[in-house]
Design goal:
By secondary structure, the chain is mainly alpha-helical. The chain has one domain. Helices cover 73% and strands 1% of the residues. It has a two-stranded antiparallel sheet with strand order 1-2. The longest helix is centred in the C-terminal third of the chain and has 27 residues. The protein starts with a helix and ends in a 14-residue tail after the last helix.
Length: 343
């Protein structure tokens, strides 16, 4: 309980930041809709907040590295897109019309799965966790909840989501019995595979800047550009193939699979990244998303609100990088005040 009393601020920030980044900063939902009580509370507590907090606890107790955390984020993608919004299944709402009838296998939207699960891993879990850890370094490597409470919350949250999907979900009403059981098996099986992969990936420690030697004074442009480049290669490239080129779905699957392996492989080759470098990496990806998917698309569509929102989001991301650089340059980084690395 003492740990919980010390960690209530990062807990609340993580639960609020995750849906904000995934829904509003991605352009999926206008801020005017998100901040309505009927949306804000369910999203920050049930849709994002509690499952994201639970996965963060699992990653922390398991000392998972960046890739392990990303894999757990894909489990969240299955929770969100599979059990809650059910966008993985045809003929339900695909969330992105370009993927509606693309690559259907037994009622599963395969290209959409390969796109949206890693996307959730990056923006729903990895990004908010890294940013909150950077702001609260003393709590970053510690569990925030008692172990028993984490298990209870995981069982209740996951159990309710599965029960909703099995007994009251939309997909149940549009599939035959065999296909529906296959969908249940795919969601749960994919989650198990992602977890097993997460715990078997290298568990590298997060080292402060003074120890890692990765960062230098000034703006850390290299990880920022790497994050933006990965987003463009991975997500924009896939969207271009689907919506612009109209490529056959096996080509989309092949491209996405290669991009996923290449992108995660590049991340895996980074030796002991500092929290600053990792945070700037995801800020680079977020900036690319805000600039291309929100700002640029808003201008092309003539959507003034979306364009202005995109400009605000880009400014917010760049400002965050500038603040990090300023702290590093002053010699009083957040990480340096966070104590020694764990042994």
């Amino acid at each position: 309980m003492n740990a919980l009393r010390q960690s209530w601020r990062p807990i609340l920030l993580l639960m609020a930041l995750s849906p904000l980044l995934a829904e509003v900063f991605s352009g999926s939902m206008p801020a005017t809709d998100f901040f309505r009580p009927g949306v804000l509370l369910p999203f920050t507590i049930f849709v994002y907040g509690l499952p994201i907090l639970i996965l963060r606890e699992v990653a922390t107790r398991g000392s998972l590295g960046l890739l392990g955390l990303w894999c757990l984020g894909m489990i969240y993608g299955l929770y969100n897109e599979g059990l809650i919004s059910e966008t993985l299944f045809h003929p339900l709402d695909p969330a992105n019309e370009a993927y509606g009838n693309l690559g259907l296998v037994a009622g599963l939207r395969i290209p959409w799965m390969l796109y949206i699960l890693p996307w959730h891993g990056l923006f729903s879990l990895v990004t908010p966790v890294l940013l909150v850890h950077l702001l609260f370094p003393r709590q970053a490597d510690r569990p925030w909840l008692p172990k028993r409470a984490t298990w209870v919350m995981a069982i209740v949250t996951g159990g309710l989501a599965i029960a909703r999907f099995v007994f009251w979900g939309e997909n149940r009403g549009v599939q035959d019995g065999g296909t529906f059981l296959l969908h249940v098996a795919v969601v749960l099986g994919a989650a198990l595979v992602a977890y097993l992969l997460a715990v078997r990936l290298p568990r590298r420690p997060w080292l402060p800047r003074a120890v890692s030697g990765v960062d230098r004074p000034g703006v850390p442009w290299r990880p920022f550009v790497a994050g933006a480049g990965l987003y463009v290669l991975w997500f924009v490239g896939t969207e271009t193939l689907v919506a612009v080129v109209k490529a056959p779905w096996p080509v989309v699957v092949l491209y996405t699979s290669v991009a996923v392996v290449a992108g995660l492989g590049a991340v895996a080759r980074v030796q002991a990244p500092s929290r600053v470098a990792a945070a700037v990496f995801v800020l680079g990806a977020g900036t690319a998303q805000a600039a291309i998917i929100v700002l640029l698309v808003g201008q092309v569509q003539g959507d003034v609100f979306r364009s202005v929102s995109g400009a605000i989001f880009v400014a917010a991301y760049v400002t965050a990088v500038a603040l990090i650089a300023r702290r590093r340059g002053s010699g009083s980084t957040i990480e340096q005040r966070g104590g020694q690395p764990r042994r």
